[in-house]
Structure formats: structure tokens, C-alpha cells
TrEMBL record:
InterPro entries: CypD-like, Flavin_trans-like, Flavoprotein. This is CypD family RiPP peptide-cysteine decarboxylase. It comes from Microbacterium rhizomatis. It comes from the Bacteria. GO terms for molecular function: catalytic activity. Pfam families: Flavoprotein. SUPFAM superfamilies: Homo-oligomeric flavin-containing Cys decarboxylases, HFCD (SSF52507). Residues 16-157 form the Flavoprotein domain.
Length: 193
């Protein structure tokens, strides 16, 4: 985005963000703050995988979000029942940000061993995956293609970013503005149906 471009806005009124366990999860609070600042009327719901707890706290996200916030565990005291309907609150889409390789593979396999995965397996809402895979090979491509066979799943466009481990530049999908643009396109398509 250049200095003269406006930040993207979310075309809907409510969304759900699922945070999975990657070092990139430590940057999610900044993006939630940015989203709330640039889209003050949008309701932001969040689920946080147990692996993401190493990088970000549910309490911190709860202070930044204005919707439902819960740990992605069957025993979480803050778990609401909305996931059973394939959404939280009145969410119009789900963004997985960041989406680890493990999360992509579990979704591809149809696994529903946590509330958020169950929600994403049964939802008809658009799902946008902001993938942060450590490498690209035939296996990762295979599972991504399986997910793309679902009509409601898309991936955020990749951007060049700095790897946390060796500081080299590499393409990745940790692109929240791009994920919002894909979500907006999916909402626009859904409205035309």
C-alpha cells in the first residue's frame, strides 16, 4: 500500500478471525487494533488456538476486539455456542490469520477436533486463509488444492516478508489487507447469489 492509498475496509459488519500457533500470531494484536481503527463499526470475533497461546494471549485480544473472544478448546470457559452454527455472533466470514501448515492440513483432512475447526468444517461462510507455511513442496500444494476444492475457501494473496528464523525474504500469505480484500470479494459474490 502506498502513502496515497486508503487502507482496505471490511465490506461486512462482523467477521471472525481464527488465530493459529505461529510466531506471526504475536503480530495479530497490532492488526486487530488497525482493523478496529480503520473499521470502527465492524464487530471482530476471535478464536485462539492452544498453540497460539505461546505467542499471544486471549486476554490481550479480548481487550482489543469488540466481539466474542475464546480459546479454541472444548474446555474453554469463554467458549460460546455459536460455533455449532458455523459462526460466532453474526459473522459474515472467517479469516484464519495466521494459518499454520498444521491448521491448513487439519482443515484439508476434514478434522473437527476443536471448536474452531468444527465451525470451519460446517460453515457455509466464506473462509479466507492467510497461510504462513515454512516451505513449499508437493505435500503442501496437495493439501491447499484440497481446500480450494471447497467453494467457500480462498487464500490471501502472498506478499514478500521476512522469515523469523533466518531473516531471509520469502513469499507468505500473512497479508491481512489482502485477506480483507478476498473476504470482500467473497461477500460480494455471496450477495449476488
Amino acid at each position: 500500500m502506498t502513502a496515497d492509498q486508503q487502507p482496505p475496509t471490511f465490506a461486512g459488519s462482523e467477521l471472525h478471525i481464527h488465530v493459529s500457533g505461529s510466531i506471526s500470531a504475536s503480530l495479530v494484536p497490532w492488526w486487530i487494533h488497525w482493523l478496529r481503527y480503520t473499521n470502527p463499526d465492524v464487530v471482530v470475533n476471535l478464536s485462539v488456538s492452544e498453540n497460539a497461546h505461546r505467542f499471544v494471549s486471549v486476554d490481550a485480544l479480548d481487550h482489543l476486539a469488540n466481539g466474542e473472544v475464546w480459546s479454541d478448546s472444548w474446555s474453554s470457559p469463554s467458549l460460546t455456542s455459536g460455533w455449532r452454527l458455523g459462526r460466532t455472533g453474526r459473522s459474515q466470514c472467517i479469516i484464519v490469520f495466521p494459518a499454520t501448515l498444521d491448521t491448513v492440513m487439519r482443515l484439508s483432512q476434514g478434522r473437527a477436533d476443536s471448536p474452531a475447526l468444527m465451525m470451519m468444517q460446517i460453515t457455509k461462510l466464506p473462509i479466507v486463509i492467510a497461510e504462513v507455511s515454512p516451505a513449499e513442496n508437493e505435500v503442501t500444494k496437495y493439501w491447499r488444492e484440497i481446500l480450494l476444492s471447497r467453494s467457500n475457501v480462498s487464500f490471501a494473496p502472498e506478499v514478500e516478508g521476512t522469515r523469523a528464523d533466518d531473516r531471509s525474504m520469502a513469499p507468505n500469505g500473512f497479508n491481512f489487507p489482502g485477506a480483507l480484500a478476498v473476504a470482500n470479494a467473497a461477500l460480494s459474490t455471496a450477495e449476488r447469489r
